[in-house]
């Protein structure tokens, strides 16, 4: 009867309980009262079971991995079965956890729906800690799918609820989320403002780890970007002081390393060396290997700048060993680049070349990883936006259905006539909207791929300039730079449009071929032939569609050739499409692949991958099924005699 005791007041509580029990007994309701209490106990036990399942699932969710996700799924199923016995069916905590689970798996389609259910439950039950958590996580979700405005609003709601209802440990993370959104939008001043708020609120809640994270972020923002070395030194020293007091070696090592970098940028090599050595003393004992690799590499560069070349080699070697173990492409890239410069200073061109090759390989891996991440982010944003539009279309259908039901209560014949007419118009409008939507989404993805194409093209062309500079050919470098600037201007002008005229594309391609011919000292000749019935000013094609294939012909087909090479580009009219054939007399694809394997390369050309994706989008947008065909050419003896690439392009005007 303890449950009733907490519900009753007055001086004669004991007497009232006794009377109530006698009444229940005499009226035959005592048994029903026992069932009521038993039901309440059962409901409480089920709630505890669900919380227990969520706690167990959360421990495996943090581990991640396929096995962890499978176990989490089993615990969720168990919790859902238990929740069927509860009045509210599924609790707010369970819906919130399912949203987090879907997010961790990369399934973003159901995240928002589960968060809405969790929010509704939290509001109905005045569960403010849950409500603040829901708003905070919704901000993280919106930021991930690229909805920055909605993300900031969610973080602000989380802060408001936490402040009003005195929910602990939420406010610093809310400010951190807003800071992340602002830096993603390029607002460095706003970023620093909210990082300061993050630090202040973390200290107010005695959350030292979050405060250290904020201090490190703030110090880094003054080291790089809008540089202020005095403020950077002050903030990073405070981070180091607090991390030493709290015996946190991670932040001690990190802040020491960044202090060293700040001094290095100021040209104070002795102070920079001191702090990098201090960083290693913190990071090595507790296994913070990423900090160790960075500090060792920077100590090598400082020793190199001071003229202690053997010491520099030792530090560089240790840095590369640690970075290789971590598969840290960034550190492997820049350390090899600095080592390359060291060998150039020593006049050891062989080792300088080897280090430069490694720098290029690791840098290419880093660029490829970033490009892949960019494509993944674009896909996530596209799917999330598409899902949101599908929900909107579904809501519109439901509203139209309710309207039809109201109209049906009127004159039957008139309503049927109007209904059929309305349905016909609605279907036509929906098809039109969906068609426009698909075309717009295709253009967005085209723009995303095109923006990845420009850096890829510029990166490869800069290698040509670098080649002339290494040859110390000032005249050729100057001529090449002039032509390259003209080409870049054309490429940037063309990249503003999804489609450009065939004449503009061929002009840029001709200039590119001229540059490559200069670079390889007339190792090959080229010619471009266009069918007379094709109006190059009228017909349009996707921007920079042909260049990656021409580049592959030169690099992998003609360069290994012993004799003078030849590239022929032929554009003809074939039915409902243009056929662009790129033919060379190179060593052929099979020999090209063997050369690539011998050089240690095993990745496909990024340029041709992107171009293939762009052709797929064009097919999707215009309802065509055009493709790219590769043909291996043979001579009369059956030996490889080059490669022919046929690109089918829809006719666009």
Task: List the SSEs and their pairings.
Layout: H1 2-5, H2 13-27, H3 30-63, H4 65-83, H5 92-105, H6 111-124, H7 128-144, H8 148-165, H9 171-184, H10 188-204, H11 208-223, H12 229-245, H13 249-266, H14 269-283, H15 289-306, H16 309-326, H17 329-346, H18 349-408, H19 412-470, H20 474-494, E1 499-501, H21 502-519, E2 524-530, E3 540-542, H22 547-558, E4 565-574, E5 577-584, H23 589-598, H24 606-622, E6 628-634, E7 640-650
Helix pairs in contact: 3-4, 3-5, 4-5, 5-6, 5-7, 6-7, 7-8, 7-9, 8-9, 9-10, 10-11, 11-12, 11-13, 12-13, 13-14, 13-15, 14-15, 15-16, 15-17, 16-17, 17-18, 18-19, 19-20, 19-24, 20-21
Describe, in plain words, how this protein is organized in 3D.
The protein is an alpha+beta fold and 653 residues long. Helix content is 74%, strand content 8%. It is built from 24 helices and seven strands. Strand 4 (565-574) and strand 5 form a beta hairpin. It is flat and about 90 Å long. The N and C termini lie far apart (84 Å).
How is this structure best summarized?
The protein is of the alpha+beta class. The protein has 24 helices and 7 strands.
């Amino acid at each position: 009867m303890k449950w009733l005791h907490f519900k009753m007041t007055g001086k004669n509580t004991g007497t009232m309980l006794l009377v109530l029990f006698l009444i229940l007994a005499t009226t035959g309701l005592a048994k029903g009262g026992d069932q009521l209490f038993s039901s309440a106990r059962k409901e409480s036990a089920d709630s505890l079971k669900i919380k227990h399942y969520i706690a167990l699932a959360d421990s495996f969710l943090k581990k991640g991995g396929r096995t962890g996700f499978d176990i989490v799924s089993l615990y969720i199923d168990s919790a859902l079965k238990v929740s069927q016995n509860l009045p509210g069916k599924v609790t707010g905590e369970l819906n919130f956890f399912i949203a987090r689970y879907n997010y961790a798996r990369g399934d973003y389609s159901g995240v928002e729906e589960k968060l809405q259910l969790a929010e509704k439950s939290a509001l109905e039950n005045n569960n403010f800690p849950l409500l603040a958590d829901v708003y905070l996580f919704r901000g993280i979700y919106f930021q991930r799918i690229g909805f920055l405005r909605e993300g900031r609003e969610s973080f602000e709601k989380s802060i408001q609820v936490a402040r009003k209802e005195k929910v602990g440990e939420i406010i610093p993370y809310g400010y951190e989320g807003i800071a992340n959104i602002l830096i993603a939008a390029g607002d460095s001043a706003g970023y620093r403002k909210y990082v300061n708020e993050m630090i202040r609120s973390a200290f107010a809640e005695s959350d030292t780890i979050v405060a250290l994270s904020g201090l490190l972020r703030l110090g880094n923002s003054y080291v790089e970007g809008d540089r202020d070395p005095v403020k950077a030194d002050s903030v990073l020293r405070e981070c180091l002081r607090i991390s030493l007091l709290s015996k946190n070696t991670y932040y001690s090592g990190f802040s020491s390393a960044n202090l060293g970098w700040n001094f290095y940028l100021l040209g104070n090599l002795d102070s920079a060396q001191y702090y990098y050595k201090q960083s290693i003393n913190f990071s090595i004992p507790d296994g913070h290997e990423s900090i160790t690799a960075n500090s060792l590499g920077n100590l090598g560069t400082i020793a190199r700048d001071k003229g202690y070349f053997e010491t520099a080699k030792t530090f560089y070697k240790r840095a590369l060993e640690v970075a290789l173990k971590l598969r840290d492409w960034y550190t492997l890239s820049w350390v090899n680049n600095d080592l390359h410069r060291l060998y150039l200073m020593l006049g050891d061109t062989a080792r300088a070349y080897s280090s430069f090759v490694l720098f290029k390989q690791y840098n290419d891996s880093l660029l490829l990883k970033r490009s892949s991440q960019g494509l993944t982010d674009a896909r996530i944003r596209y799917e999330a936006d598409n899902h949101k539009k599908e929900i909107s279309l579904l809501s519109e259908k439901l509203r139209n259905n309710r309207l039809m039901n109201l109209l049906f209560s009127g004159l039957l014949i008139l309503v049927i006539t109007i209904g059929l007419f309305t349905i016909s118009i609605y279907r036509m409008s929906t098809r039109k909207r969906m068609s426009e939507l698909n075309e717009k989404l295709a253009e967005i993805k085209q723009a995303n791929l095109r923006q990845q194409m420009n850096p890829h093209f510029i990166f490869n062309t800069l290698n040509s300039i670098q080649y002339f500079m290494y040859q110390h050919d000032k005249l050729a470098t100057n001529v090449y730079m002039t032509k390259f600037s003209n080409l870049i201007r054309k490429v940037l002008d063309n990249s503003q449009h999804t489609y450009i005229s065939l004449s503009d594309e061929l002009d840029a391609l001709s200039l590119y071929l001229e540059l490559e011919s200069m670079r390889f000292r007339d190792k090959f000749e080229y010619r471009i032939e266009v069918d007379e019935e094709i109006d190059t000013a009228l017909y349009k094609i996707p921007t920079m569609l042909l260049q990656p294939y021409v580049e592959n012909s030169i690099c992998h087909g003609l360069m290994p050739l012993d004799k003078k090479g030849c590239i022929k580009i032929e554009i003809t009219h074939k039915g409902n499409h243009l056929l662009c054939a790129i033919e060379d007399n190179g060593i052929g694809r099979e020999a090209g692949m063997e050369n690539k394997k011998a050089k240690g390369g095993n990745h496909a050309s990024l340029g041709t991958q992107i171009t293939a994706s762009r052709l797929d989008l064009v097919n999707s947008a215009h309802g065509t099924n055009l493709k790219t065909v590769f043909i291996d050419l043979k001579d009369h003896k059956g030996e490889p005699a080059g490669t022919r690439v046929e690109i089918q392009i829809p006719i666009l005007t």
